[in-house]
Specification:
- With 284 residues, the protein is α/β, with parallel strands linked by helices.
- The chain has one domain: TIM Barrel, CATH 3.20.20.30.
- It is 43% helix and 14% strand.
- The protein contains 10 helices and 9 strands.
- Strands 1-2-3-5-6-7-8-9 form an 8-stranded parallel barrel, surrounded by 7 helices.
- It holds the Pfam family Bac_luciferase.
- It comes from Pseudonocardia xinjiangensis.
- Keywords: Flavoprotein, FMN, Monooxygenase, Oxidoreductase.
- This is LLM class flavin-dependent oxidoreductase.
């Protein structure tokens, strides 16, 4: 199982200048992937900007959004943004997407919560059209350079529609940022949907989990704050799930490995860049 590093782009009031520092350090430490968290109505750095900054600060490490709230974007614009990130990175991007669940993230007029699943299905066709270099805007020009590829998509979510969409359109599934025991049913549902869709092989399965080794209380509070919109019970559950000791991190890694995950991404919960080296000493 590969081990990735989740950038703290959605820690409240993150220092944006630390993002490329984290990215470079994680690549040098040997992590497989750099991950990002997606939100709009929160004082962090957007996943597209974070991924672009990470691409510029690195050469070989993978880039992954876990997950980007695709329906809050106009499809044509997001497709071009993602193609640019993938291109400047040398085709290292995998896009993890979901439909979103918080109304204030849907800030563009006409792009509200209602119908977001259907909008995503429509936009998936738009993405592929743009990436193929088909003309946009009713004219004759494509939106992307020649050589743009179809970027692999991984889907999150826990509804039957999400699993079916993953099996139909994606290369894999990413679980929620919860203990392995709570995520296991969604992994099984994703694998079952894959088989039901007649796909060969197995979906790529990615787990994610929050960690903090330098300032446990700060890290837990940051996670609680991020999930506070779901209420105290859920926010406290998420904050309590932060792995904050070497033993807890090793246990989380082993648990996801036992579930058959292809990759497990450890998400930083503060913008202390020393977290990279602390984690690397434990997992490598």
């Amino acid at each position: 199982m590969k081990i990735g590093f989740g950038l703290p782009n959605q820690v409240r009031n993150v220092r944006p200048e630390t993002i490329p520092q984290f990215a470079s350090a994680a690549e040098q430490a040997g992590f497989s992937t750099l991950g990002t968290v997606g939100r709009y109505a929160y004082p962090g750095v957007s996943d597209t900007i974070t991924l672009a900054a990470a691409a510029g600060a690195t050469k070989t490490i993978g880039l992954f959004s876990h997950v980007m709230l695709a329906p809050v974007w106009p499809g044509e614009l997001l497709a071009k943004e993602l193609a640019g990130i993938d291109g400047v990175s040398g085709h290292r991007l995998t896009v993890g997407i979901g439909v979103g669940g918080r109304p204030d993230d849907f800030a563009v007029d006409g792009f509200g919560m209602s119908g977001r699943g259907k909008r995503m299905d429509r936009d998936l066709e738009v993405y592929r059209s743009v990436w193929k270099g088909e003309p946009v805007g009713g004219g004759t020009n494509p939106a992307v350079p020649a050589g743009t590829r179809e970027i692999p998509l991984i889907f999150g979510g826990g509804s039957p529609a999400a699993y079916a969409r993953m099996a139909r359109e994606g290369v894999g599934y990413v679980g929620g940022s919860m203990p392995a025991s709570m995520v296991a049913p969604s992994f099984e549902a994703a694998r079952a949907a894959w088989k039901e869709a007649g796909r060969s092989g197995d979906p790529r399965i990615v787990g994610i989990g929050y960690v903090n080794l330098g300032a446990e209380d700060e890290g837990r509070n940051n996670v609680r704050d991020y999930y506070s919109f779901l209420g105290d019970d859920v926010a406290n559950l998420m904050g309590g799930a932060v792995s904050a000791t070497p033993e807890a991190i090793k246990e989380a890694v082993k648990a996801y490995e036992d579930l058959g995950a292809d990759e497990f991404i450890l998400i930083a919960t503060t913008d202390d860049t020393d977290e990279v080296s602390r984690l690397a000493e434990i997992v490598f």
